[in-house]
Amino acid sequence: MHRLLFVTGASGVGKTSTLRLFEQRCPGILVRYFDGVVPPLEAMTKEYGSAEEWQRQTTVEWVARIKTEALSRAPVVLDGQARRAFVEEACGLAGLTDYRIILFDCEDSVRELRLIGRGQPELANSQMANWARYLRTQASMRGDPIIDTTRLTVKDAVNKLVALLSRFAGA
User: Fold this and answer.
1) Are 126 and 169 contacting, i.e. CB atoms less than 8 angstroms apart?
2) 3-state SS record for 117-145
3) Which terminus of the chain is more solvent-facing, meaning fewer CB atoms within 10 Å of its CB: N or C?
4) Chain segment 15-73, per-residue pLDDT in tens
């Protein structure tokens, strides 16, 4: 298995729900949650100049911290929304080559219903749809694995992730 896995995808695709159950099923793999440190947009803009720059710098910080604090003990999965270019930059700066990016994705209408259902209707918008489309395009162009959660239960998504990780281990 790759030592560092990035599970990315737009809000509402099922990343965090899947990884919470995955943590219970695979206790030997550490899971870290990028979204737990997301400040309000105003704070990102004030301190970093833009949300993109906040994401870039925070990705670099997360990867450096994971390398220092966790990778020597166990493989790590980082759950969050990150541009592929930022992941590549962060890993390059940390001197890491043993990583993979996995995209979680679903149909826009399903993602929007999930966001509304969990009390985040403000995220069910065209900007999030564009972000999902961007991530989907990048993953397809780069050959990154995509787990489509449109018709999956959380348990089914965990099973798909475990199967994918098993294939990585055998590669």
Assistant:
1) no
2) HCCCHHHCCHHHHHHHHHHHHHHHHHCCC
3) C
4) 999 999 999 999 989 999 987 667 677 888 888 898 889 889 999 999 999 999 888 88
Is residue 169's pLDDT more than 70?
no
H or E element in which residue 100 lies: strand 99-105
Helix (H, G, I), strand (E, B) or coil at 31: strand
Q: Interhelix angle for 51-69 vs 41-48, to 10°?
A: 80
What letters, b where the CB count within 10 A reaches 16 and e where it falls short, cover 151-161? ebebeebbbbb
Phi and psi, residue 103, nearest 5°: -95, 130
Q: What is the pTM of this model?
A: 0.90
CA distance 5 to 25: 17
Provide the residue ranges of all domains of the chain, joining segments of one domain with +.
4-163
User: Per-residue pLDDT tens for 114-157?
Assistant: 999 999 999 999 999 999 999 999 999 999 999 999 999 999 99
pLDDT, residue 120, reads 93
Would you tell me which CATH number, out of the four given (3.40.50.720, 3.90.700.10, 3.40.50.300, 3.10.20.440), belongs to the domain 4-163? 3.40.50.300
- Asked if 34 contacts 78 with a C-beta cutoff of 8 angstroms, the reply is yes
